[in-house]
Every structure is written in structure tokens, then in C-alpha cells.
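pasting GDP-fucose protein O-fucosyltransferase 2 for the record, 666 residues
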Amino acid sequence: MISKVSKPVYIVENPSIATILPQEILCEIFSHLREHPVHFTRVAQVCRAWNFAADHHLFWRQLAKTLLLPDPKPRAYKYKTYKSIVSKCWGRFCTLCHSKRTRNNGYQIRPVLVDMVKIDKIDFESSKWFKVVLREDKKSGDVQNVQKERSSELSTVNVVQGAVKRKELPSRFLKHLLCCRCNAIYCRYIREEEIKKRRKLLSVKLGEFGLTIPAKHEPCDQFILYGEGDPASIARELFNTMMLKNISLEKVSLNKSIGIDDINDNNIDFNNNNNNNNTKKHDENINLKYCGEKTCRFMFPYFIPEQETRANIHIRSLTYLAESLNRIMVLPNVGNSRMNCCAKYPFEFYYDLDKMKEMFPRVKFMTQQTFKDWTKELLIKPDTLHTWFIEDGRNDSYSIRDHNKMAVEPGVHYGKKILYKLCVDQFDLNIIDYLEFHTGIGYVKDFEYKMFNFFTENLQDIKSPVILIRNRSRRQMFPLIEEPIPFAPHIMKQAIEIRNKLQPYYCIHWRMEQGRLEKMPKCAEKLIETINHLKTTEGINNIYLATDYPISGGTSASDTFYYIKKEHRLAIQMLNSTFDLKTWVSLNAFKEFREDKNYNSEFKGSGIHGILDKLICIQSDYFISGPKDCCRIRSTYTKLIGEARKNLIDKGDKRLRNVITRWTRL
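structre below
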């Protein structure tokens, strides 16, 4: 009978000492690992003993406490250890600074493949958003302090020399989860290292020709900053240009030594000096042509936030700042109810520039196109300071930049792609510096006046001919100027024609953007009931409708009104089938512009017709707006209409029968 043979059991006579170490010693060894969860998960795969030691290491507890995570529950089914609690929140925190993403801060945590050798060189605690501090720099500062206290300097010198002679370790890549701040600091360090390498390579190529890197040379700067071009060809071209200049200088010196043309000998000058003098005279004449002075000083707010009603307020406040800085105010283009340098149409398309000059008699104004021509005609491109106004506490993607108080700090240096996206590359400017101004989060009494003084103190001594302003702050930053900028004559003329044609009339302003979708048909029913009731009491039949619904096709008249649903269409159909509604489309407003193809984009969304609706509502005999759940209640657009109507009634305009009436709530 054949007996069943069992599997052999292999007994390890000499097991590795690493597998039989006590848990206390393993935990002490694992404490020297780099503080990244992935290292602990890797050593946990060696054996059961290492698995238990790595999973129950104090690192997980400290990380959970740092992230303010709840304690584990040993009797629970899933989350019994601190490691399981951390793994549950994986992807919601930065593995370098341990910043946690929440709904309030809006941090963006993204996986990034980083070089661990370079990460170890950066001191993220001391580094700022725009300044990278290396651990070597911090250590060198500590060494200097120790040298003053200690008498023995030989040991410290040997340590420093050893650190200098030490070879750089090969790259080791690991995927980290980084927040915006850590990612920006790491990318900035990588970019600075690349710039150093390219600068060193270019200096070597120039050294072969006996040259050094010049202070201002566009091909050299483009290669150092962006890696564009070949360093060998750049060095060769620079050498050839220097040789040509030397040959011309030798010719001049020979003429001087021989004594040719002794009468005009005093008028002979070096070509470089002549060229520089001619360039300066040319630019001075250009400045006299555009500014009336030999030197020009501009302030150009090339980006204004929000739509026309709020942008009108911002541009008034910025004009007040330009007056205090004694600079020429460059007015950005307009289009689609916005103000920025990317817009297609000049400032006069929306506003009356002559009346604006009367509002600010001590300020000089210049249009964007004229400013662009000035930059093109200059031979020496003007030095420019780029400023960025940031409103803190908005819980957006820039929240990591937030400051508790007013602050100014070095800003991000924009590359070609960002300048192209912002349309700043259309101007020939030499942007030499970037600054960020922060409003601060906390409440400050008399904020507008203090912010205005803060800006004036930091900008009044700037010597750059041009100050660019990118304003991202929707907050009122400077003292409010109540009087709005008057609109262009062609807009006022069209509004008066429609008013005279419709009188007497109701104006209904229905901004559907934030209304509850399911209640749109009910809102239309209540509006119909309200108008029928007013017809019997007021005796008015004509109705003008101002709305963000795309009555002309295309997109809505609001940038945040993204989707037009069947409920919105049904509500408008109910009004059209009940009343003979008048709109800027049915009245054929701005016929001459709509027939011009250059203005097609202006009438497909928000634009000049929004200004026309506002003027017609202000002049209407009876003004109606929507209640809660039917439309957006808090609107600067509606508030401005109500304030303008109240002022007309106070001045004695008896034609207006109310300030604002909300139709019946649901």
C-alpha cells in the first residue's frame, strides 16, 4: 500500500536578522524613512513582521493628527488603524506640506512626478510662493552663526568643502500629491535650475570667442529664459556684430590720427554714441507727439472684472488712482459687456469720452489703439511694471495666496503663453517687474481710503513709464465715485427714439440666471396676472422686455447663465403668446451696427444692447422686476435702475409712476 507523501517543510536554519528584529527596533529604523506614505507601504511588503511594524508606526498617527482626521475605532469593520484613516483620505491632502483640501479653501491636489533628489534640497517651510529657499542656504547661515560662537573653525571648513566637493546624486522620481503652493515652488526651482544651466552653457560658448553675456541682448535672453535658439549660433552672431563695430571704430580712429578733414575733426563721434543720441531724440519726439512731454507716464488697467455695470464703477475708481499718481489713463477696449485689452471695439463704442474728460478735468486720457501706436513707434521699448490686484478670501483657485491684511509682494513672471492669452503681447513693452497687491481678508474700517493710500504709497515712486494693471478684485477698492460715465451718443439717441415710440410703457426686467428651473412656468403665470391687473389700474398697454434670455439667438446675455432649458423656453413662449412684447430685436435697434459683419459677435450674447435695455427701463413709465425664486434678486444692474428712477422722481419727473415693483411671489 502506497502511503500519501506530504509536502516537504523547509526549515530556515539561519534566517535574516532583519526578519527577526523586535518591533521596537523596527519602528526605530522606520523612523529614518523619508516622510512619505509610499515608503511605509513599500517596506510593509517585505514580510509580516515588517508589515505590522510599518502599518502601526507613529508616522500614521502624526499624519492623521496633522490633517485633523478622526481617531480609528478598533471595533469598527474597516477603519481600525491610523493608516486606514489616512488611506481613506488619500488624494485630499498634500504629501509635502500636509495641507488638506476642503470645500472652503478649494485647494487643488494633483499627482506630480517629482525628483526626490531636488525635493530634498528645497526647504518648503521657509520657501514662499515666489521665493525658493534651499536647505543648503539655511545650513550655510547656521554654520556662520556657529563659527562666531565656536573657536575651532577647521571642522566647519572641512564640512563646507566636503559639501561642495560632493557629487550630485542621480535623479530618483516619485509620484507626490502636491498642493498649488508646493507645486509652484517645485516648478520654480526646476525652472531656476534650467536657467542656470542654460546661462552656464551660453557663457561657455561665448567664452570660446572671448565674450561674456551682455546685459541686454534679446537672443541671449530668449535662450536663457526659454531655451530658444542654439547657443553656438548666438555666440557666433554676437561675435560677428562686435567685429563689425570694432572695424567701424578703427576707421574713425584712423581718420583722426591721419588728420583728414581737420575742420570737421571735432564733429567726428563714435557710431554708438551717435546712434544712442539719435535714438533718444527720436523717442523724445514720439513722446512729445503723443504726450506733449519728453517723457510719458501711463497707467493702463488692461483687465477690468465683471460686466459693464460693475466695470463702469471700477474704471471710475481706477481713474481716481491715475489722477493721484499723475499718470495718463489708458482706456481699454470694450465688447460683449466687458472692458479689457482683448475686446474688439474702442472705448467710445460704449461711452462718451468728451464727457468723461469733463468728469475728470485733471486727468489725461488715451485710447488703447493710440497707446499701442506709441509703443510701436518707440525705438527703445518702455520699461513696464505689471501689477495684479487680488481679492483675498474668495475661496477660488488663488485662495492659497490669501493674506489677512493688505499686502504687496513680488508677483508671478508671465511667460509668452500667458501674455498672449491676456492679449498683452500686442504692445511692444519691456516688462521688467511684477507685483501683487492683496486686499486682505479681514474687515477694515474705511477700507477704500486706506487701500487707496496703500496703492499710492507703493506706486507713486515707480519710475517705469508704464504701469499695467490686471484687476481681479470685484471688491470696491477705492473711494466710490457716484456719477456714472455717460454713454456714447449713438446709444443715447437709440434709447430716446425707442422711449418716444413706446410711451407710455411697462419695462419688465427678468433675469432668469438664478431662478429656480422648475418654477419658471409658474413665474410666467404670475407675471401675466400682474400685468393684466396693472392694465386695469394704470391703463398702460405697451410692454418692453429686458432679459438675459437669448431672444436674438446665440448665447445668453449673462456670462454665468450657461444652459437654456425647456422651462426657460416655455416661460418666454407663454409671455409671447399672451402679450405683444417689444424688445430691442423687434424694434430693430442698432440697425446700422447689426448689418455690419464686424459687429456680429457683439449681438450674439451680452453687449451694447444690455446698455440699451438699462436706459429704456430707467425711462419707462412703470418698472417691473422678478421676485425670489424667479430671478436674481441682488443685482447691481437692477439696483442701478432703481436708484436712477428714484433720482428722476425726486427731481420732479411726474411721468414715472413707481421706482420698482416685484410681481406676485409664488
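The longest strand covers residues 430-438.
The radius of gyration is 35 Å.
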